[in-house]
Predict the structure.
Amino acid sequence: MPYMTGDELLLEMYKRGYTRDVPTIMLTGYAEDDVRKLRNVLRLKAIQDELKRKNVELTEASMQLIRRLGKAAEYRDNETGKHVIRVAHYSKILAEAIGLTPERVTLIFLTAPMHDVGKIGVPDEILKKKDRLKPIEYEVIKTHALLGGEVMKPMTREELSLYNAHMEIGAELLGESDTPILQLASLIALTHHEKWDGTGYPRGTRGTDIPIEGRIVALADVYDALSSKRYYKPAFPEDECVKIINEMRGTNFDPDLVDAFNSEHAKLVKVKEMFAETEKTIAEMPAKES
């Protein structure tokens, strides 16, 4: 070879990310036996490419399911479904503002819409009640955090064996379902109602003992609740929303996240406007009964 040897070429390929995984065969004038291996190497590369394609398809299918699961929980609560979209974007902005890695930011963005998935397990007569909840009813509402954490936990092998008793292959396929995205979805569902001062629920976790992902979604969720019309309240003016969030600095919310909220407020408002409820959807929301 002119310019460099075969060994030097392989080394250069390894240094570059886009050529590092390219299968290579080194031949010399005396390597006739090695040529026979070429077909097997090419077949292996084809199999690897197919596995990558299938993995992409599976990931996309999983994300579609996750998005729909988050929307399903919101529709049960007389919402339009845009709430979970806004919370996802608010969470992404806050996560970026405090310097989380792009990988963690993406995971939070993808899993934040499932924060209220536990509402699936709350009875309709309580979840859709239009007047003020009784204390015992509010306690039932609060269980959605625990329920959400449980719903998103991967199944144990014992649970899988019962669920897939008629299908042993299914149990094997689902047995390794403990993925980072499901773990984080469970964590957010469980902790997004915890408060910085320890007065939240379901466990009364305090300060930095609350996972940062739960702290982020907690603030994003409350901001959206304040700035959006719900069947039990009108949307608050933006300056009132900012005032309330800042009053909760150090009590409900991580002070650093409130600072990030203030610094990125303009971006949050743009998201709110981009995914605002239409006049039609607002008109269809039931008014609070007196």
Summary: The longest helix spans residues 38-75.
